[in-house]
Write a structure and sequence with these properties.
By secondary structure, this protein is of the alpha/beta class. The chain contains 19 helices and 14 strands. The chain has a 6-stranded parallel β-sheet, sandwiched between helices. Strands 11-10-9-12-13-14 form a 6-stranded parallel β-sheet. It binds nicotinamide-adenine-dinucleotide (NAD). The site of nicotinamide-adenine-dinucleotide has 27 residues, from helix 1 and helix 5.
Length: 436
């Protein structure tokens, strides 16, 4: 099938590469010319395991190409995916400017029946809005349909998630239109659900809001555990074994960040308000999340009191492991606060340092290994739970530190092991331990 994907970010590039890998003829479009040039030269604009190889393979086989020429790409395609960014405005409302721009350009380019698929995360009603924008900007009345096909991939495992999604949601105006998408996705052999367009749009927000609430619930329980002397890891393990609850997204820590949960929760609260519903439950989940960085820095401050003049090694900068994405990363708030309180910060991340350097305060010192970051540090603060940190040589880490103090914002290590290794160890929702 001839497919066009507009937007070559995390979603668009991965979607384009996977559809090409399934044997389709895919053109990926972006309006940032430097991005397209880099992609043509085989350079990935994002870090995503397995992506570079998949792109290279499909480009070499002639199934995947890159262009800034949206009109030409649309004219040769049966299906056009919109995968541009939908950031939040200050009010929490979703900014649909990029979606509107693309819809207008598609309208002006279309010469024959086309299925326009919205994969960007957009508020309920956007499918209808895209249809109206296209109708308004068509130069001649060419038939088309608008489908909602929300994306659920996670950065860091985007290829795997796209190849093996838990479900594929197709919100289509008619069964016949849905069939076009069913056919495209059929080779994946994954569960598909066909809905109307607004319901598909709502499924995406409801899912993200539910997961964000689950994380905040675990963090609220962690706060209680700290007060009551209970261990949140044992509590959430006990909860997660209940099949009705499940263990995923039930870990206490610094809370969620990234390009999706914060903006999607704000957007749903805004949509609800617009519709006349006060979504107090989701507001509370957002508030619990907002307090996490402050809570963690207070932990660091208490352990190091005073913070002024102390050196803190921060391990992990990306908003989560296996990505270089710094959008809404907790490291930004944590490091900014530590610096404001007078500490020096030596930071390390396996891949996010180039992006981090553009958003973190200038006083941050970047190091090329966790051990270099911990050199003469008064404390190590773990912010992002990269697997690499799980397998650190902790003896070596302790030896280079000035004081063997670890503050674990993600409950990555076992308190008893840290105690035996000679650390003073503080984590989230668990009792601190002193060195053996
Ligand atoms: P991104 O910012 O990484 O990529 C968006 C791309 O669109 C950029 O390359 C940008 O240059 C391009 N673009 C913007 N306007 C354009 C235009 N007018 N014409 C052509 N290209 C244009 O964004 P992303 O993370 O891939 O997210 C895209 C959408 O998917 C968002 O709605 C997001 O909420 C949703 N989503 C993201 C994820 C994720 O993990 N990143 C997961 C699920 C859903």
């Amino acid at each position: 099938m001839n497919i066009c994907v507009v937007g070559t970010g995390y979603v668009g590039l991965v979607t384009g590469a996977v559809f090409a890998d399934l044997g389709n003829d895919v053109v990926c479009v972006d309006n940032v010319a430097s991005k397209i040039e880099a992609l043509r030269a085989g350079q990935m604009p994002i870090y995503e395991p397995g992506l570079e190889e998949m792109v290279a393979r499909n480009v070499a086989d002639g199934r995947l190409s890159f262009t800034t020429d949206l009109a030409a790409a649309v004219r040769r395609s049966v299906i056009v995916f919109i995968t541009v960014g939908t950031p939040a405005k200050d009010t929490g409302q979703t900014d649909l400017a990029a979606v509107d721009d693309v819809a207008r350009e598609i309208a002006q380019a279309m010469e024959r029946y086309t299925v326009i698929v919205n994969k960007s995360t957009v508020p309920v009603g956007t499918g209808e809005r895209v249809r109206e924008v296209i109708e308004r900007h068509q130069t001649s009345p060419v038939p088309f349909d608008v489908v909602s096909n929300p994306e659920f991939l996670r950065e860091g495992s985007a290829i795997e998630d796209t190849l093996r999604p838990d479900r594929i949601v197709i919100g289509a105006p008619t069964q016949q239109v849905a069939m076009t998408l069913l056919e495209l996705y059929a080779p994946l052999e994954r569960p598909m659900i066909i809905t109307d367009v607004p319901s598909a749009e709502m499924i995406k927000y409801a899912s993200n809001a539910f997961l964000a609430t689950k994380i905040s619930f675990a963090n609220a329980i962690a706060n209680l555990c700290e007060m009551a002397g209970a261990d949140v890891s044992q509590v959430t393990k006990g909860m997660g074994l209940d099949a009705r609850i499940g263990p995923a997204f039930l870990s206490a820590g610094l809370g969620y960040g990234g390009s999706c949960f914060p903006k999607d929760t704000d957007s749903l609260i805004h949509t609800a308000a617009t519709l006349g519903y006060e979504f107090a439950l989701l507001r509370a989940a957002v508030e619990v999340n907002r307090e996490r960085s402050g809570h963690f820095v207070a932990l660091v401050e208490k352990a190091l009191a005073p913070l002024d003049g102390k050196t803190v090694a921060v391990l992990g900068l990306a908003f989560k492991p296996n990505t270089d994405d710094m959008r809404e990363a907790k490291s930004v708030e944590v490091i900014t606060r530590l610096l404001t309180l007078g500490a020096s910060v030596r930071a390390y991340d396996p891949v996010a340092i180039p992006n981090a350097a553009t958003v973190l305060p200038q006083d941050t010192v970047f190091c090329d290994s966790p051990y270099a970051a911990a050199e003469q540090a008064d404390a190590v603060a773990l912010v992002t739970e990269w697997n690499e940190f799980k397998f650190l040589n902790l003896e070596r880490l302790r030896k280079v530190m000035r004081r063997p103090l670890i503050l674990d914002g993600r409950n990555l290590w076992e308190p008893e092991r840290m105690r035996r290794l000679g650390f003073e160890y503080h984590s989230i929702g668990r009792k601190p331990v002193a060195p053996a």
